[in-house]
Amino acid sequence: MKLFKNQWSNIIFIVVILAMIIPQTRKPIQIFVNKLISFAPSVNDEEDREKIANYNWVLEDSREKRVEFEEFKNEVVILNFWATWCPPCIAEMPSFQELYEDYGEKVTFLFVSSEHHETTDGFMKRKRFSLPSYKMLTKAPEPMIGKTLPTTYVIAKDGSIVVDKVGAADWNSDSFRKTLDKLLAE
């Protein structure tokens, strides 16, 4: 009987390994695991918050309209560097969508990708997301250079970076909503 149990555990282990090797199953598994391990992002202590060096940054929206980052000065901004091929990015998108539905009129959401607009627009349509997607035309200001995907910054009205999160998070959590409400009240 014990020998039979060991065989089942070996079979399950082999199936999991094969599922991670096969490209068609690897991405959905990675997305699922990232959703499972995502927690609310932590807020930087006030004394540790960096400020945006400058607002000289040019983006392009999905209609290929030039957008100056300067327009968002004195606003609460959620800035997310992402890609359509990135499993952690995809895992956190549903929580961003829920947050966007409630805060889209109060907070500026910027989802920045280096991919072509056709790629990001197609992804958003397939997934039924209405998140505003942008492409960088110039380099992001210091210290907001997202080298790892996803990287998300939450910027207060005074330009200080309240959250700088690398990796997936649950952006629709009660604790993060309280953080946003506090930032909007300032």
TrEMBL record:
Database matches in InterPro entries: AhpC/TSA, Thioredoxin-like_sf, Thioredoxin_domain, Thioredoxin_ResA/DsbE_sf
Regions that span the bilayer: 6-22
Keywords, sorted A to Z: Membrane, Transmembrane, Transmembrane helix
The keyword Cell membrane is annotated on this UniProt entry: no
PANTHER family named in the record: THIOL:DISULFIDE INTERCHANGE PROTEIN DSBE (PTHR42852), THIOREDOXIN-LIKE PROTEIN HI_1115 (PTHR42852:SF17)
Biological classification of the source: Bacteria, Pseudomonadati, Bacteroidota, Flavobacteriia, Flavobacteriales
Superkingdom as given in the UniProt entry: Bacteria
Thioredoxin domain ranges (all copies): 34-185
Organism, as annotated: Christiangramia aestuarii
Listed GO MF terms: antioxidant activity; oxidoreductase activity
Protein name (database record): TlpA family protein disulfide reductase
